């Protein structure tokens, strides 16, 4: 991002084009600009859950730099093999990073 206008445009694109699904997870969106009081902030939370697995992305403009920050959380229960859970979570994180870069 080079300017505040770029950041605002990206956040507007996100708000106008909430994905129905990401990485196979149906998505629920929460726009924190719609909150009232001290919890109101310029951020969008995208989350989804299937069974015991879940994802969460929080996208918001940086307060100090001309960029949008993206926080990614992937949760996968370890049923038998923690290595398989880590590999799966890594694949999902990569897909979510690619989505965030292309908003």
TrEMBL record:
It comes from the Bacteria. Residues 56-76 form the Alpha-D-phosphohexomutase C-terminal domain. GO terms for molecular function: intramolecular phosphotransferase activity. InterPro entries: A-D-PHexomutase_C, A-D-PHexomutase_C_sf. Pfam families: PGM_PMM_IV. This is Phosphoglucomutase/phosphomannomutase, C-terminal domain protein. It comes from Mycobacteroides abscessus 1948.
